[in-house]
Design goal:
globular, 8 strands, 8 helices, binds pyridoxal-5'-phosphate, alpha/beta, 204 residues
């Protein structure tokens, strides 16, 4: 479980921590800095939103996994900062399986090539793939998106210098059940945890 905290109030996020949740995520660097500073230091923060390159240096020290590598220039910038800081950055490639224009990410047919390219970037470790399904009233309608991501992973792993790709980050409040059935290792859940507290997490 990756709890996507967005605009959830700090005391509520602290309540999740008290229940044992240790993986949390933000989609904006600024909010990640603020939450990370306010929560105990053993929370593993994940970055799930569009990552502007000018926020990388300040954000990386607080981040355990970047889910949203959606363009080559971001992979290059993460690699450069990893080299500068002497660290390894763990990340996932975001894949736009549904082809929606409003979503970022690589097209499915370029994923194998980008993975092979990224495998050669110093300081960057690509550990898997991430996707967001199209919003559907019936979660079941999202299943083909998750199957497609898993197949992409299965066909690209352990070839052309690419590693195991053990992580599949897929499934949100609305559609996590079919995602888990199709092999998700990480579900990113926001509104189902935070509904009714503070401003709506979905207002962004
Ligand atoms: C907000 C967000 C989530 C969580 O969405 P919910 O529908 O609130 O569970 C997951 N992934 C990303 C990238 C998000 O921005």
């Amino acid at each position: 479980l990756v709890a996507v905290t967005k605009q959830a109030p700090i005391d509520f996020v602290q309540g999740l921590y008290d229940l044992g949740v240790r993986r949390m995520a933000e989609n904006r660097p600024q909010q990640l800095w603020e939450k990370a500073a306010a929560l105990p230091s053993d929370v593993r923060w994940h970055m799930v939103g569009r990552f502007q390159t000018n926020k990388i240096a300040r954000t990386l020290p607080a981040v355990a996994l970047v889910h949203s590598v959606d363009r080559r220039s971001l992979a290059e910038a993460l690699s450069a900062e990893a080299a500068r800081a002497g660290i390894e950055v763990r990340c996932l490639l975001q894949v736009n399986v549904t082809g929606e224009e409003t979503k970022g990410g690589f097209a499915p047919d370029e994923v194998a090539e980008v993975l092979a390219w990224a495998a050669a970037l110093p300081g960057l470790r690509v550990d898997g793939l991430m996707t967001m399904a199209r919003y559907e009233d019936e979660a079941e309608a999202c299943r083909p998106t998750f199957q497609a991501l898993r197949r992409l992973r299965d066909s690209a792993a352990n070839r052309n210098g690419v590693g195991d790709l053990p992580i599949l980050s897929m499934g949100m409040s609305n559609d996590f059940e079919p995602a888990v059935e199709e092999g998700a290792t990480h579900v990113r859940i926001g509104s189902a945890l935070f509904e009714g507290v503070g401003p709506s997490p979905s207002s962004t």
